[in-house]
Amino acid sequence: MSSPTPTPLAEDRPAPASSRATPAAAPAQRLVSLDALRGFDMFWILGGDALVYALARAWKIPPFQFLADQFEHVPWAGAHAYDLIFPLFVFLSGASMAFALTRIIAEQGRGAAVKRVLIRGAILFVIALFYSGGFRSEWPDMRLLGVVNRIALAYTGAGLLYIYLRPRGLAIAAGVILVGYWALMTFVPIRDITLEKEAMIARFGPKPTQTQVQQAYDATTAHVTGRYDAGLNVSNHFDFNYLPGRKYDVYWDPEGMLSTIPAVASCLLGVFAGLLLRRSDLAAMKKVQWLVIGGVALLALGFLWGLQFPLVKKIWTSSFVLVAGGWSALLLAAFYYLIDVRQWRWWCPAFVWIGLNPITLYVVKGNLIGFPAQAQRFVGGSVKNFFDHAVTTGAGDVMIAATSLGLVILLAWFLQSRKIFLRV
Questions:
Q1: What are the pLDDT digits (tens) for 220-232?
Q2: Measuring CA to CA, how many Å separate 224 from each of 67, 194, 227?
Q3: Contacts with 328 (C-beta within 8 Å, 6 or more apart), sequence order
């Protein structure tokens, strides 16, 4: 993925016309907004979501209840705010790519850029395997694909395309990916069997074996097309047949093989935003306007396409790519306007700190430090009971969630203050 360190660098300079396929790099100042938005995105999965849930439990008022609902994934079709966090990160990795890879190509050539993309993608994929448990369990009880794995693959695919294609070629590539994925999901026939845990339990009892499910699949002779239901679509069936190892949803994975392809298009949408922000021939407000126009256009196209090809994050449908890309562009427009155009930065330092080390904090929280458990050392026990009785039932949980999030921010500040940026 793109570097989590400050994104554009002042030393970026134009590339020789013969050295690259994308436009020559224009001089660029550091865009704090990219770091801040990346940190804002990570803030919610590093503990912001837990704070929202705790507030909703303690104070059952409509605003908190609405936010808590938005921080739950939709079961299948549709999207809540929480469903947009992952694609926003992929989008921002593409936006940062337009700065980082442009500079590398200008200074060292395409070969160095290819090496950088492949090495970073490989390192990030290995980190992802570690995050998912690594070799803690014996094969095949090991998950090969997941959230960070998808970021690695989307970054690698989009990065290689960026190195060799001009913006028009990138636009064509994104269109081919989205339309091609739609065609694949719509017209390729699959067996008429729903590969869902509940469906298999209803059919075989509480503990269906893999052999039973495989035999039921093989015995199904009827075929269907154009189905996008959970467990009954081309992507899920492809995972069932070809994805080895442990699958998150037993028979398929929400970050599966085929659904990773349109994630490359999500990254490319971020590349287009990054190319726009790099332009030295456009005034800052013009860039904001184009981001807003592009975001609204993507939302309109995505919701329109969603009437036929539903918005489903778990199979990363093409309509979902457009809608998530639209919201990402609008958020980037807002952050760019507030932080880099108006220079209103008093409210975002914590987001910037997190945005400088996002993957590091994600792995530390998920595998190395149990921040909620550590928070209980400070405000658990009698302290929690005091808040539950003195304020309201559940206020103690709010304190634990807030303290846990505070510890994450403190670690982010420490890393930033010591200039420790663990790049991947």
A1: 999 999 999 999 9
A2: 39, 11, 7
A3: 84, 87, 88, 91, 92, 269, 270, 273, 295
Give all strands (DSSP E) within 199-322, no chain letters. 223-224
Positions of E strands within 95-198: 190-191
- Judged against a pLDDT cut of 80, whether residue 39 lies above it is answered with yes
CB 186 within 8 A of CB 225: yes
Inter-residue contact 144 to 244 (CB < 8 Å): yes
How many CB atoms are located within 10 Å of the residue 265 CB?
Answer: 29
Give me the residues paired with residue 284 across strands. none
* CA trace torsion 347, 353, 357, 360 (10° rounding): -100
Among residues 235, 240, 246, 192, the alpha carbon closest in space to that of 214 is found at 240
- Tens-digit pLDDT profile for residues 153-212: 999 999 999 999 999 999 999 999 999 999 999 999 999 999 999 999 999 999 999 999
Contact (Cβ atoms closer than 8 angstroms) between residue 353 and residue 413:
yes
